[in-house]
Every structure is written in structure tokens, then in C-alpha cells.
């Protein structure tokens, strides 16, 4: 009787091991899908947030290191803006530009025959919160040599006051070998502050 029971007991023991193995596999599968998977997803999303935060921290550190350079650049830009604002005359001082143009011509050995602002030719170039900016054309007729005219134009264009030269024409003076007659329009930029 023992011999007949022994294989059944052995079979029951093997069956219990198989059932125990299936139970363990079932528990692992259930554990993975119900407990571990949501935790792994939470870890993955946390990892993304950590990467984004570390990139933000790196960018902040870089910006903090660049801060002195940026502050210096702001100071330089404010100085440049101040110089530019000073190079555009208030509308009330525009007529003084005729004097300035005459002095620049004299320094360049140019003789001015005629200089006058063009009547009602003022054009608005820009309007913003600082004021309205205009171009005031000044008609100019003068005489001098080619090099002197070039020097005069250079001085006009590079003066601290914004000016530009339009519609210039150089003609040979019939009465002189070295002299030329130049006609031009000098645009002076002015501002009417608000």
C-alpha cells in the first residue's frame, strides 16, 4: 500500500510545486501590471521633469555668468542711445544747421554761393513715443575743387548731427580750371519731442 501511495504523494508534491510556480508567476504578473507599472511610469515622468529642471538650472547658471557682460552691454547701449538722441536736433534748433554747414564748408575750402531750407519740404520720417522725427532738406549751391567737395561731403556725413546728402550734381565751372560748382540737398534730421 505504501508503494501505491508513494507515487500519488510524489505526484501531489510535484503538482503542488507546479501550482506554487503558477501562483508565483501570477503574483509577479499582477504585481507588475497593478503595482510596478504605474510606479515605473511615475518614475519615467519624474525623470523627464528632472532632465528639464537640470537644463533650466544650467541655463540659469549660464545666464548668471553672462549677467555682468549683459549689464555692461546695457550701459554701452544707453550711452549709444544718448549719443544718437543728441545727434538729432530739436526742431527749434534746425535753422542753426545752416551755420554749421557753412562752417564745415569753410573748413573744407568750399565757398558757398547759396544755402537755404526748402519751404514746406519737411517730411516726417518716424513717429514714436519719444516724438516725431523729420527730415529737413536744405538746398546748397557751392564751388570748390573735387577733393574739397569730397572732404566737405565726408564732414557732413560724419558730423555728430545726423545729416545726409541727396540729389547732388557737380559741374565744371566754365570760368576756372580748378573749380567746380556743386548743387546738393542736405537733409538734416530733427525731432519734435512730445
Keywords:
194 residues; alpha+beta; Alpha-Beta Plaits; 2 domains; 6-stranded mixed beta sheet; 6 strands; 27% strand; rod-shaped
Summarize the structure.
This protein has 194 residues and is of the alpha+beta class. Helices cover 57% and strands 27% of the residues.
Explained architecture:
This protein has two domains: 87 residues; 105 residues, Ribosomal protein S6/Translation elongation factor EF1B (Alpha-Beta Plaits). It is of the alpha+beta class and 194 residues long. The relative contact order is 0.11. The longest helix has 86 residues. The chain is 57% helix and 27% strand. The mean pLDDT is 83.
CATH architecture verdict of the largest domain: 2-Layer Sandwich
Query: What order do the SSEs take from the amino end to the carboxyl end, as H and E?
Result: HEHEEEHEE
How many separate domains? Answer: 2
**If helices are DSSP runs of H or I spanning 4 or more residues, what is the number of helices?**
3
Strand residue content = 25-35%
Write down the overall geometry.
rod-shaped
Q: How much is the radius of gyration in Å?
A: 44 Å
Amino acid at each position: 500500500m505504501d508503494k501505491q501511495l508513494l507515487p500519488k504523494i510524489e505526484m501531489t508534491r510535484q503538482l503542488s510545486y507546479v501550482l506554487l510556480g503558477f501562483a508565483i508567476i501570477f503574483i509577479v504578473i499582477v504585481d507588475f501590471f497593478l503595482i510596478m507599472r504605474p510606479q515605473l511610469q511615475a518614475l519615467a515622468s519624474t525623470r523627464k521633469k528632472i532632465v528639464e529642471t537640470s537644463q533650466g538650472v544650467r541655463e540659469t547658471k549660464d545666464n548668471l555668468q553672462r549677467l555682468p557682460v549683459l549689464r555692461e552691454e546695457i550701459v554701452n547701449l544707453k550711452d549709444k542711445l544718448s549719443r544718437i538722441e543728441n545727434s538729432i536736433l530739436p526742431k527749434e534748433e534746425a535753422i542753426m544747421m545752416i551755420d554749421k554747414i557753412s562752417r564745415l564748408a569753410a573748413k573744407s575750402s568750399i565757398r558757398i554761393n547759396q544755402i537755404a531750407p526748402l519751404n514746406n519740404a519737411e517730411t516726417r520720417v518716424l513717429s514714436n513715443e519719444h516724438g516725431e522725427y523729420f527730415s529737413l532738406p536744405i538746398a546748397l549751391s557751392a564751388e570748390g575743387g573735387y577733393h574739397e567737395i569730397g572732404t566737405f561731403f565726408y564732414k557732413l556725413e560724419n558730423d555728430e548731427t545726423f545729416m545726409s546728402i541727396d540729389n547732388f550734381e557737380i559741374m565744371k565751372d566754365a570760368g576756372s580750371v580748378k573749380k567746380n560748382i556743386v548743387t546738393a540737398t542736405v537733409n538734416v534730421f530733427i525731432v519734435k519731442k512730445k
